[in-house]
Amino acid sequence: MVRQGLDRSAGVADRQLTWVDRLPEGLRPFAVLARWDRPIGTWLLLWPCWWALALAPGWPDLRLLALFAIGAVAMRGAGCVINDLADRDLDARVERTRHRPLASGELTIGQALAFLALQLLVGLLVLLSFNPSTILLGFASLPLVIAYPFMKRITWWPQAFLGLTFNWGALVGWSAVTGDLAAPALTLYVAGFFWTLGYDTIYAHQDKVDDALIGVKSSARWLGDATPRWLWIFYGVALLLIGVAGWLAGMRLGFFLVLVAAGVHLAWQVRTLDLDDVGSCLVRFRSNREFGWLVFLALLAGKVGP
C-alpha cells in the first residue's frame, strides 16, 4: 500500500514528499533518517528550551535562541538515529515504518553510526558554547537519550521516558541564562513531562495495532479507550504547572491571559480526537507546535504590561 501520496521509490512509507526529496540522491536517506522531512520532533524538543529562555529573567537572547535551535536539530536527528538503530528489526515489521532507511537496508549500520557521530559533534559544539554549569547539565541528559529507545520493550510507559528526555531543555535553557537551577525551571520541566505524556500517547495510537502484534508496549495500548480521560489529566496538569512556573518567575497578567488560549488549544485536541483514525491522531500530535508557540508568546506577554 502506498501511503500519504508517496511513491515506494522514495523509500519511506510514513512521510510525504518534501524538500528532502530534492536533495542529491546520496544525501536523501540520511535526511530521512534524521527526520528532517518531519520537523515536528525538532519543535517538540526545542520548545522547552525556548520556554525556559523566555521564563528566565530578562528578554530571550537571540544568540541563545539560535544556538538552541541548532542544537535541537542536531540532537533530535541523533536521537532518531539511535532510535532507528535500536528498532530496525521492529520497524521492519510495522507498516508505517518498514521503509525507513535502516529497516529497509537503504543505509548500513556503519553509515548510520558515522552520521550519528557527526550530529553529536554539532550538538557538542553547541553545548560547549554555554557556561560550565549548563555544559555539565547537558551531559547529564545522555543516559536518558541512550536509554529511551529501549523502554518500549521494558515498560508500558515509554512516553514517560520520552517526557524526561525531551523536556531536559527546560533545565538547560534556564541554566544557560542564570548559571543555576531554580523552582521555575524545575516546575516547567515537570509541566513539559506531562505535556509529553499527552501528545506522545496520541502519537502512539497510530501504531497500536502493529505494536500489539509484535509485542511493543506503549501508554496508548495500556490506556486504550480510557485515553481521552487521561489526556484531560495530563494536559490539565501540564497547563497548571506552566502557570505555576510563570507565577514563580514573576510573570505579569498578560502571561495568564495568553495561557488561556493555549489551554483552549489543548482542549480542542482532546475533544476532537478520534483514537482509531490515524490522520486525526497525527494532526493533533503535530498541532503541539502551535501550542508551543502559544506558551512562548504567553511568556513574552508576561514580561510586559501591568
Characterise this structure.
The chain has helices spanning 28-33, 40-55, 62-91, 109-127, 132-139, 142-147, 158-166, 169-178, 183-204, 208-214, 219-223, 227-248, 253-272, 278-286, 288-301. Residues 1-13 have low confidence and may be disordered. α2 (40-55) packs parallel to α15, α5 (132-139) runs antiparallel to α8 (169-178) and α12 (227-248) packs antiparallel against α13. It has 306 residues and is an all-alpha fold.
List the helices and strands and how they pair.
Blueprint lengths: L27 H6 L6 H16 L6 H30 L17 H19 L4 H8 L2 H6 L10 H9 L2 H10 L4 H22 L3 H7 L4 H5 L3 H22 L4 H20 L5 H9 L1 H14 L5
Helix pairs in contact: 2-3, 2-8, 2-9, 2-15, 3-4, 5-8, 7-9, 8-9, 9-12, 9-14, 12-13, 13-15
Q: Any idea of the CATH class?
A: Mainly Alpha
The termini sit apart by 57 Å
Number of helices: 15
Q: What is the CATH architecture annotation?
A: Orthogonal Bundle
Low-confidence stretches: 1-13
Mean pLDDT: 90
In N-to-C order, the SSE pattern is HHHHHHHHHHHHHHH
Taking the sheet with the most strands, its summary is: none
Overall number of structural domains: 1
Query: Helix- and strand-based class?
Result: mainly alpha
Q: Please give the number of β-strands.
A: 0
The Cα radius of gyration reads 19 Å
Question: What fold name stands as the CATH topology?
Answer: Tetracycline Repressor, domain 2
The residue fraction in helices comes out at 55-70%
